[in-house]
Amino acid sequence: MTKQTFLQGTLILILAGMITRFLGFINRIVVARLMGEEGVGLYMMALPTLFMVMTLTQLGLPVAISKRVAEAEAKNDSQKVKKIVIVSLIATGITSVLFTVGLMFAAPFVATSLLTDERTLYPLMAISPIIPIVAISSVLRGYFQGKQNMKPQSYAQVIEQIVRITCVAFFVKLLLPYGVEFAAAGAMISVILGEFISLLYMIYMFKRKKKIKIRTKFFSYLKSSRSTVKELFSIALPSTGSRMIGSFTNFLEPILVAQSLAIAGISSSLATKQYGELTGYIFPLLFLPTFITHSLSIALVPSISEAEANLNKGLVHYRIHQSIRLSFASGAIATVVLCLFSSPILTYMYGTDKASSLLVLMAPFFILLYVQSPLQAALQALDLAKPAMWNSLIGALCKLSVLFFLASNPSFGIHGVAIAMSVGVVLVTLLHFAALQKAIQFSIPLIDIGKMILLIGITWVIGSWIRNLYESMGPNLILFILALSILLIFYVITLFILRFISREELIQLPLFKKWLK
């Protein structure tokens, strides 16, 4: 099986993430234009429930599988790898069936009593079959990650988005005449088909690349795998706790938003529309750079686990520092662009810039989100999943408290929701960093902090000049793309000048190896 280096694996995941994000944006634009703000609101209100159930189903095993497989590979223990895969498939298989049935029975109560909009019943029911599909694919992803082979899951991500975007317009148009709730259910059906085809590809790659036979002595391996179960769940349960906290918070979020905005005197339909703007329009833009940070996090877990298994503490520190530096570099440009060009971006993408004030408000704080993911991955890779879980819990409680306090105030309304989400992001990131500092004395050198501030400052000055030039020439899509391209060129040059990306790192990549030697 082909194994990639940390940067090679990260680059493969980034390229796949870039493609899937681009296709995902097209999908969101199609959905938004076909269903409108209210349809998007119904769609987005149903998703947190799905994410919460999926988190319970997976039991945090993908991260645990990745770490334990990487450790077993470092010791060349193929039998241990087999035990890990068997235990994980059985655990996720059982939980996926239970939670699929549970979601189908609970959907009417969730839709009418908790989400306060009975129309969300249809997308909730439509999405439930995806749970066992995602459960199995998560085990396979963890296996390939632990092997440090990022190609199968990268290709699977692209396949999933292609299938989804191919089907979404058909199902939404087919069901839209029956109401926006049925159109939202149609959008969910396209998600299921995409995940299913993606799973078939993962199974094919597993059968083709595996060096272990799952069916051979299946139950005898299960009986002798008590220590493997303990090792897996020592990471999986706290990881599940972290994800469960996030999923449960996302589940409560639309409920709390609806109730808080109602207290503030905002009608149910307007609250749904505003929440749709925030989660359907603003969030995709704010989360755009996370495909890079998520890729770094996925590659970071097996890389740190292998280094730790080999007692290489210097490499552990270097990998964490490297991931933070690259994550900040990917997020800084997004922060500046979203702040300076919020109105044209929203107008060109969604045909309205009503939510531009929300985007400008949240973008500066979300730069910390881009380094949060690698920090959490580092904690999990170092068997510090419990502190990460407690940090997530503290952040979630603070976010929900601030949300209710501000959103129920007519002076804040939906802006109170945006402020609360920003507070949660900042707090969790700082807590993760503090946990790493306490555990392994990790710190960011002052010179690097200075470089980060300088990077933001230089990019902001250049971006402001380009924006003023663009506005003086009148709104035009081609000029807008040209303006962003020029800013990006200046930004990349600044990255190299400040050594956010070094020659030594580039030379590790086959694409640049011949040029730089």
UniProtKB/TrEMBL annotation:
The chain crosses the membrane at residues 40-63, 84-109, 121-143, 155-176, 182-206, 282-305, 326-350, 356-375, 412-434, 446-466, 478-501. It comes from the Bacteria. Keywords: Cell membrane, Membrane, Transmembrane, Transmembrane helix. It is a multi-pass membrane protein. The keyword Protein transport does not apply. Signal peptide: none annotated. One of its GO terms (cellular component) is plasma membrane. Pfam families: Polysacc_synt. Its main location: membrane. It is found in: Cell membrane. The keyword Transmembrane helix applies. NCBIfam families: spore_V_B. This is Stage V sporulation protein B. It comes from Oceanobacillus jordanicus. The lineage of its organism: Bacteria, Bacillati, Bacillota, Bacilli, Bacillales. The gene is spoVB.
